[in-house]
Amino acid sequence: MDRITLLIDMDCFYVQVEQKVRPETVGLPCAVIQYTSLAAASLIAVSYEAREKGVTRSMNGDAAKNQCPDLLLFQVPMRRGKADLTKYRDASAEVIKSISKFTSKIERASIDEAYIDATGINLFCVYSTSNVVIDPDSMKHLYDPGDLPNPPYSCSINEISGQMAAIECLCDGRKLRQALCLAQKIKDQILADTGFRCSIGMLSKIACSLNKPDKITIVPLESVQHLMNFTRVKKVPGLGGKLGKDLALRFNLEFIGSLTAVPLPRLIEEYGEKTGTWLYELCRGRDYQAVSTRTLVKSIACSKNFLGKSSLKKDAEILHWLTNLAGEIVERVAIDRANHNRLPTALSLFLRSDQSDTRSRALSPNILASILPRSQQMEEEETEAQIARRIAEMAYGSVRSLIGTAAITNISLSVGKFKSDHSAACGDVKKFLTEPPKLVKRESFFRQFFEIGNQAEPSTPKKVAFEGSLHQATEPKAQEETKASKELVYFQRHNSTAEKVLCEECGSYVLVHLMPEHRDFHFARRVQQEWNREVNRTLQPLQVKKETRTIRETKRGRGRGKRDLGLAKIDTFFLKRD
């Protein structure tokens, strides 16, 4: 066993989040629904107390109330006409933060599940809530499962005599014990930080569901095949959809362990080399895929179902719901960008109608770059609304080309392919422009120059080379200090108050580095004044002559009209006049 992987699965997560706000409901039968209408509302989470009274997630609100009259129903908050899962996502982030105190090798699987790599972590062990899967053929010396219910068999480690010795005598038992200790520590840390309880399993998702709630289940290498022999195909991660159905139909399977009878060449022939090899290893309880470090979601999506009479047919209704969904997407991207400095580079539209399966269209992602990070002052709401409308209009243009005139039963928008937001390092332009100016002390370059000269070794004589002479004279130290002090006073006098110098033309003080531009200004003004004088001198005799012209003189000759000399040529400026 090279790796030990744990799955942390939060128990009735949505219910726990609601009970944290209302602690008086802990221990009572509870469920979470999405909408106020009990007839149409579906249960998304059911507490274990409610499950004991026959309530299941497949029930709607009315059926659940009939089954358990004292059932407490929590409603998911509503926003933009659909369920708002923000507080559940925030609670999930708190759980990931608690797990991060133990290891950075965390792969977030869903809002209430995460895989971690527990290989090589040493901790002390606690067996009070720990269970082990027992293979009756190879582990009878530890425990006789004869009194246990239907397989797969698992029992509490407390029921095994010589607990620590029993664990360590298994294949890779020491690693299992260390992983078991880590699992217990993680459970305790999550409970202390968030108040939420969870179950943890090794052979991850399959083992985790065997003992819930608030339990740990380990699967020794000796019991792996026993567990697979009694695990239904649809319960195996990756086989809950079309592949699992096809596999069960093609080979007449009920449990995934029965697939071991199918040789590898046959699996490769039916499903290709990659999938066939994966199935061959999977039915034997082997999965070599490493835990990929991922604590953030890979995509952000929001969708809405419109079943039965609520299906969308009118263009105005479609555009309205596209705008609502786009508004949620933009808001979540803005918050995600502020918290994690990343930006999505892919935008997709998904539609399902009453006449076709789900169809998708990739939209231009360029608009996503204009979503600014969300600040605490909520100043960007108006901008976000404008971006949401643009996304909705862009998506609306693809609706009819995807499904024609059919009624829409589901709309979904999704963004993904996140990349680092390099603009975050550039700062906020708005903040830069609105901040009051700050006074910064700037030290004169000339002052620095003479201070460096004064810090030279005093005993070292200076050699001054005189122009036109091959001889070098050495001045006394006193003369050097006097000369340096005079020069320093000169520059202090002329460069005090931020290094300003006197302009001889206008008598104002100008910064040293702006003096060339200031001189250009004076030169340009002199040129303009000379130009105006020359133009006025040229126009005066023309105006006098124009006033003395007769009516006959005003008539133009054939094709020889007098040119208007109101605007003089530029060469007249350069002509010298006496």
From TrEMBL:
Residues 5-240 form the UmuC domain. Residues 496-530 form the UBZ3-type domain. GO terms for molecular function: damaged DNA binding; DNA-directed DNA polymerase activity; zinc ion binding. Pfam families: IMS, IMS_C, POLH-Rev1_HhH, zf_UBZ. Belongs to the DNA polymerase type-Y family. PANTHER family: DNA POLYMERASE ETA. This is DNA polymerase eta. It comes from Echinococcus granulosus. The lineage of its organism: Eukaryota, Metazoa, Spiralia, Lophotrochozoa, Platyhelminthes.
